[in-house]
Amino acid sequence: MVRLYSPLEGKVCPVVCVSLGPLGDSGMLRRGLLAWVSRVGVLLVLVCCSLSLLYVMTCSPHSEDNLVSHALPRPGMGVGVGGAAGGTGAAQSGPTGRNGYQAMLAEREEQHKFHITSLKKQIAQLKEALQERSEQLKGVQDSMERGTGGGRGGQSPGGGILGEGGQGPGADRSHADLQEFLHSQLGRAEVHQGTRLPSEYAMVPFESFTLQRVYQLEMGLTRHPEEKPVRKDRRDELSEALETALQSLNTPRNGAGKGYTTKVYSASDFIEGITRTEKDKGTVYELTFKGDQSREFRKLVLFRPFGPLMKVKNERVDTANVRINIIVPLSQRADKFRHFMHNFREVCVRQDGRIHLTVVYFGKDQINEVRSTLENTSREINFKNFTLLQLNEEFSRGRGLDVGARAWKGGNVLLFFCDVDIYFTADFLNTCRLNTQPGKKVFYPVLFSQYNPTLIYGNHDYIPPVEQQLVIKKDTGFWRDFGFGMTCQYRSDFINIGGFDVDIKGWGGEDVHLYRKYLHSNLLVVRSPSRGLFHLWHEKRCADELPPEQYRMCMQSKAMNEASHGQLGMLFFRHEIEAHLHKQKPQRLNPAKKT
Questions:
Q1: How far, in Å, are 88, 177, 179, 377 from residue 159 at the CA level?
Q2: Which helix (H) or strand (E) holds 130?
Q3: How distant, in Å, are the alpha carbons of 139, 240, 506, 543 from that of 547?
């Protein structure tokens, strides 16, 4: 036994010493250390597992919300700092949060359904177009076979209809049939020889043209007998004809002899050309160039044949629920407004029944008369679909129409911009509906403008009622193709295009500005004469306050409103005519004796 002194307690401790050899002490120390570490590690693992299990049990969300929370962001994310929506969404849990997620999923599903429906519609349209093109080409083949006595039942030798496959004998035959048809168009047109015509009115005149000018009988909107081709398609058409002619002239001829010249022709050698279009056959071009000698010329005749009719669209248009909002800007002229409402009652209320009237009145003078007319109409025929807006400012047609269009709050309605001196029929209202489509088409009708009735009928006592004056003849009026004020378009298109230029005051200019906006857009502008839209004659006054350009436009319109060219001539030379008639009376009373 060995006694050891313990400095901690100041005692001597008896210790039994056992001899373990040289390594006994270090081995026991290592094994004891390992056991202590392992016990501490196990204890730490147990503590961590307990804490993790406790956290999962107390902090994890319900299973349904947890699944959704991994699929979608929480409500309120992305809202500005401090936003009410963000704070509310962050605080949502349980049923309230689940409703938000379900609404978001429903919205996503609706968007996908809409996209799929749009794709299906586009595919159906493409299939229909492909089928129509195939049927049209088959019709060309059938007509060619009937013309040549074929009788093959519309089938090509290859067994397919024209246009199918594009290879093999069937495709070759189809191409040959098409070429044969185009050459038949050349034979029908007046190119190689003339055709008997019933009268001078059946004659289709030529237009002549040079490199810079076109000389035309149909002068169109510009009223110029000669002008540069302002339309791009017209310029491209004539340029293509010229380029084709030059290419033909500069192509070497097969078997050309020694006398054949190698002159290279250019556009500077072109002298003039003539062209005309027969609408059921094609367009012919005759172009004249300088020849090799001073008195020699080269003439080329080109022909652009027209193909057969093609069915492009066959659709059903339902206008039963298409309401028209007629907007009329007005300042004073209460008597004219009463006449307007007389026609409005019969056409819009009794016959059509799908009309809303918006009157935008400028100023206070005669406003009571206008309001009284509307209220009387409402009371007498039970008509409630009207709106009267008053603006205490200077009259501006564009401003009034713009205010009236934007005041409508009932969805995307069809707008008809009208004036108080316009007469229209129920057929025109349907034409307005059929020639407009939101995002696709706007309608700019050309109305028939009345001449001065006192000049047409010659006697104030025998002027017929307005309804009997609405006759479309050259002595009663003219197509007002320089006016763009009466127009039909959907409200969405009007808003998207930017509306009127409200800075334009007084008469004219605002309609042309809007018309050009539509021409510069991708919308189809339908411009055609309308047999049910009339401008009633009224004396036009051009204010001295108008700018020079507007005043000139106003005076031109005033001159054209009075009478036809022939009637004005008769009025201008009336004294000479009366003198001639006075000289003729004695001769009729005392006829000269025959010698």
A1: 71, 15, 20, 70
A2: helix 95-147
A3: 59, 43, 10, 9
- Looking at residue 200, the DSSP 8-state letter turns out to be G
Percent composition of the chain: helix, strand, coil (DSSP 3-state, to 5): 45, 15, 35
Helix (H, G, I), strand (E, B) or coil at 235: helix
Note the pTM of the prediction, 2 decimals.
Answer: 0.61
Strand-pair partners of 446: 529
- Identify each DSSP E strand in 90-210 by its residue range: 207-209
Tokens of 439: 């995002």
Between CA 526 and CA 515 the distance in angstroms is: 11
**CA torsion sign, 37 to 39 to 40 to 42?**
positive
Helix, strand or coil, per DSSP, at residue 93: coil
Spell out the SS3 assignment of 571-582: HHCHHHHHHHHH
- Predicted local confidence at residue 568, as pLDDT: 79
The 10s digit of each residue's pLDDT in 126-158 is: 777 777 667 666 666 665 555 444 433 333 333
Contact 328, 402 (CB under 8 A): no
CA separation for the pair 73, 328 (Å, rounded): 52
| pLDDT given at position 6 | 42
Tokens standing for residue 67? 């699944």
The pairing of strands 386-391 and 355-362 is parallel
Both structure tokens of 528: 């055609």
CA triple 381-346-377, angle to 5 deg: 35
What is the three-state SS of 316-360?
CCCCCCCCEEEEEEECCCHHHHHHHHHHHHHHHHHHHCCEEEEEE
- The secondary structure element, H or E, covering residue 170 is helix 168-188
CA 234 – CA 303 distance, rounded (Å): 16
Residues of the chain short of pLDDT 50, as ranges, are 1-24, 61-96, 147-166, 258-259, 594-595
- 3-class state of residue 413 by DSSP: coil
- Give the per-residue pLDDT at 470: 86
